[in-house]
Design a protein that fits this description.
about 130 residues; about 0% strand; globular
């Protein structure tokens, strides 16, 4: 049985495909943004969706990356680069290739940190 907060050792998380890490990281980041918006604002559901969409888009994540990149450890930078450079089977319709690749990289870092149980590190990186 799998629990929501089950973790794996960092060395096992590190060898997971960067696209798979990004898959998890996308969900974690989306939940983080939704929780932040609900706790800090009194938005209607429609407004919540609009704000969430803009933050979790490739363009929004590229903006996040500009703030987060200086905070990344050497190991996290390596995971970011693996995610950014990974061959993707899909393309973004609304973002440049550069933004899409960067968003995959930052999602891979978040996925790695989440799977390895480094929740405080996620909070630190995502805090404004």
């Amino acid at each position: 049985m799998v629990s929501l907060f089950d973790t794996i050792p960092p060395d096992k998380a590190r060898v997971i495909s960067p696209i798979t890490l990004a898959f998890v990281g996308d969900a974690v980041y989306s939940l983080y943004v939704r929780q932040k918006l609900v706790l800090l604002h009194d938005y209607t559901p429609n407004e919540l969706q609009k704000h969430t969409s803009s933050e979790v888009s490739a363009h929004g994540q590229n903006t996040l990356l500009e703030r987060v990149l200086p905070k990344l450890s050497e190991e996290e930078q390596g995971i970011f680069k693996r995610g950014r450079n990974a061959k993707k089977s899909t393309r973004s319709k609304s973002a440049s290739v550069y933004e899409y690749n960067n968003s995959t990289g930052i999602e891979a870092v978040i996925g790695y940190l989440y799977l390895s149980g480094q929740y405080d590190r996620i909070s630190y990186l995502l805090s404004e």
